[in-house]
Amino acid sequence: MDLRRKDRREARLKQEIEKYRASNPKITEQFADLKRKLHTLSAQEWDSIPEIGDYSLRNKKKRFESFVPVPDTLLEKARQEQEHVTALDPRSRAAGGTETPWAQTPVTDLTAVGEGRGTVLSLKLDRLSDSVSGLTVVDPKGYLTDLKSMKITSDAEISDIKKARLLLKSVTQTNPKHPPGWIAAARLEEVAGKIQAARQLIRKGCEECPKNEDVWIEACRLASPDEAKAVIARGVKSIPNSVKLWMQAAKLEHGDLNKSRVLRKGLEHIPDSVRLWKAVVELANEEDARLLLHRAVECCPLHVELWLALARLETYDNAKKVLNRARERLPKEPAIWITAAKLEEANGNTSMVGKIIERGIRALQREGVVIDREAWMKEAEAAERAGSVATCQAIIHNTIGIGVEEEDRKRTWVADAEECKKRGSIETARAIYAHALTVFLTKKSIWLKAAQLEKSHGTRESLDALLVKAVQYNPKAEVLWLMGAKEKWLAGDVPGARAILQEAYASIPNSEEIWLAAFKLEFENHEPERARMLLAKARERGGTERVWMKSAIVERELGNTAEERRLLDEGLQRFPSFFKLWLMLGQLEERFDHLDRAREAYESGLKHCPNCIPLWLSLAILEEKTKGLSKARAVLTVARKKNPQTPELWLAAIRAECRHGQRKEADNLMSKALQECPKSGILWAAKIEMSPRNERKRTSADALKNCDKDPHVIAAVAKLFWQDGKAEKARTWLNKAVTLAPDIGDFWALYYKLELQYGSEETKREVLERCVAAEPKHGEKWQVVAKALENSHQPTEAILKKVAVAIGREEIAAENNGKH
């Protein structure tokens, strides 16, 4: 039945829809026949159809223009957007320039912002409020700070003030015994500029909450200067045991006598207040202070600062009595024992200092006090700063080992000493090392660290004494003997240095280092015959290649060519793989223009040392002098094949091409070199110097990207700044270079040359002193000058000046070549 009814219903609905569509056809159906005929229209007929106009009633109505006033908010926004502020707002200046007044912030709708701020404030207060037994208790900490820093700059803020006033009125009415509500209400009126209203409110607060010291202090702050004393007097009358009120009352007084009188009155009510006792003692003279402190320690016997202050003011005997009484009252207080030790040290009884600290630590441990090693070390540093060195040493000696495992002692103590050294606590570090050396007598590393400390912060006498003890306990430690001898030599005591080296040789008879140190001492002090004898003995005892090399150097300086050649030949027979002997032989032949023999020496050396770069470079330079560029190219090509990724060989090849004017070939070699050695600083530095002037900045940027910490690149960039006349930047970059590589003398020479041109006498002297302290040994130009025969015994200062002159000559020659 349902299905039949459904079918009939759907058929009837379909007939009704068809009947409706037949009587009310759509517009598209009405024009369907006409649209079908449009395909017969030509293009001209289509274009001639007129455009339909706008005939709607909406556009036929007459339009009236209406004018309304521009809102104030829009004008304000436009003014602020167009305004250029060149000075701080007066309110901002009053706040120290650290606060931005609200009116300088672009505001779109002042009324909406005001309503929003009121809502935010009410939400904050609602969140802070809490309902307790029908009363509203407000914690004022949050909004009191806001009120104190608020600046009223607009009507919206005034509206906020009104809302806050209503809220705080509700607080004070619902809970009049709640002091923060009164304080907040008074501060709100103060912010609003109504100081009289604020005073009235806080006065009511004092009446409602007479036992709250914060309300009285706020009332005192808001009161006029004439009334403040009366207000605080009523306060201390209501709360005579309030330390804060008595301190505030003392602040209001003028003159130390009046302040002291008020504080003493307070002490009558609160005799156990340490704060009041400290304040009254500070105002008193020494005699009165001593009497006051006697009374103070009776009233506050458990406060150690008062006992210590009294001990400092008493005589030696009375101070000891005071500290003994303090120990009885405060048996767990370490500061009393430390003060007792300082007292003995100040009176010259240094022998008692260690005993007092030791006895104090035992007594504290009996009382159950945990000895905190770090805290005691801080006390030792404080004692050092106070000038009590013996106390510092005693504390370290008795506490440094507490809580440290036996196997960790050496590492921990050395780390502690280094940390103290960094903080400037030199005596503490010295004491740690002294204690460590009593435990580790034979540890060479600790002796060395202690010696370095004495060298940098002690005297020559203390260093000599330490090194004498060091070699007594470590007679086989070469480095300690050599250090002692060097310090004697630097102090000008050559016989003393000789004596130390003789003792060292007696302890370590076969030590080559001691033989060579003795040779150097005699050689540098112009005693060549003694030096020759020492080296001859060393050779007899089977010295190493270094002994033969030093022997040849001595003969070269003395001009004994035949003996020099003999020693080199003998040395090469014994040590054919020691490249320096081959180099010296080749240089010997070159000095006398025996170029074929020199070539043979270099080639023989390369057979034994194919990976020795200095030999390859010497041979290439010799071939360039004798047979020209092509032969030098061949030598350097072979060298690069046998020693790939060696920037020095690439650089030598590039410079050889440049010397002969082959700039294009040099550029090609530089590109290949940087492909093979992209992180080579010397290659990038050479590329910066070779680049045209307009490309040097880009090249230096690429160089720094690839090797930003390389001193050669940094020095090359410094030269660029120097050429541009930017002396300060050049100085900064050269300082970086000598800091990164203090052993390279070329950078020191550049730095010194810069100071000669732009610096003062002080900066020149500083660079000179730093260079002498660094003792540079390497550098392309430095080694050429330092190893020349005429400069063999020259000090570092003279070498530096000569290298600076040589660099200047090279730069002038390069400029002349560039012009030609």
TrEMBL record:
Pfam family name, one: PRP1_N
Subcellular location: Nucleus
SMART domains: HAT, TPR
Matching Gene3D superfamilies: Tetratricopeptide repeat domain
Residues of the PRP1 splicing factor N-terminal domain: 1-58
Keywords of the record: mRNA processing, mRNA splicing, Nucleus, Repeat
BP-aspect Gene Ontology terms: gene silencing by siRNA-directed DNA methylation; positive regulation of primary miRNA processing; spliceosomal tri-snRNP complex assembly
InterPro entries in the record: HAT (IPR003107), PRP1_N (IPR010491), Syf1-like (IPR045075), TPR-like_helical_dom_sf (IPR011990), TPR_rpt (IPR019734)
GO cellular component: catalytic step 2 spliceosome; U4/U6 x U5 tri-snRNP complex
Name of this chain's protein: PRP1 splicing factor N-terminal domain-containing protein
Source organism (scientific name): Punica granatum
